[in-house]
Amino acid sequence: MRAGQEITSEEFAQRKEEILVEKGGLEKQLANSGQQVNKWVEIAENVFKFASDAQERMETGDWQVRKQILGALGSDLILKDQILSIDIEKALLPLQTISKELKKHPIRLEPLNNRINKRKTDVFASASPALLRGQDSNLRPSGSDC
After folding, report:
1. Which of 73, 76, 99, 114 is deepest in the core (most CB within 10 A)?
2. pLDDT in tens, 54-78
3. Cβ–Cβ under 8 Å, residues 73 and 86
4. Is the Cα dihedral 57, 59, 64, 70 positive or negative?
5. Structure pTM?
6. Mean of the per-residue pLDDT values for the chain?
């Protein structure tokens, strides 16, 4: 018997096996997400490096370099009155793809808003007057003339 005779050894072994399988799946997901994040970072770095170097390379590069840059920006280039226009939406497609993927897997940067956190906040607030809501720094009763 385990846990103060609340479950049998067989139940314990079964639950342990289920938890280990779940743990393995979570570890695999974590490894995959780490690889995916590295891929997204690499794509973003390449896009930003391209954007930062493109103007200088267009001004100083030969026609082949310029052709490469324009080819990377997309195929819907418009030349009107000797002004070249580029569809920026398509040029930013790699970043839009990364953004969509990140929105599928939101990462919380804030604590959950639940009763447990509320109780903790109340304890801290009672210990520190600065955290009390609605309390004015002027603690005189209202209507008093000093």
Report:
1. 73
2. 888 888 889 898 888 877 776 677 7
3. yes
4. positive
5. 0.40
6. 73
- For residue 97, CA distances in Å to 24, 69, 74, 79, 108 come to 29, 20, 16, 28, 20
Residue type, 37: V
By the 8 A CB rule, do 24 and 30 touch?
no
**What length is written for the chain?**
146
CB within 8 Å of 96: residues ≥ 6 apart: 89
pLDDT band at 1 (very low <50, low <70, confident <90, very high): very low
| Residues 67, 61: Cα–Cα separation, whole Å | 10
User: 10 Å Cβ neighbour count for 54?
Assistant: 19
Give the Å distances, CA to CA, from 80 to 8, 70, 85.
80, 16, 8
Asked if 32 and 38 touch (Cβ cutoff 8 Å), the reply is no
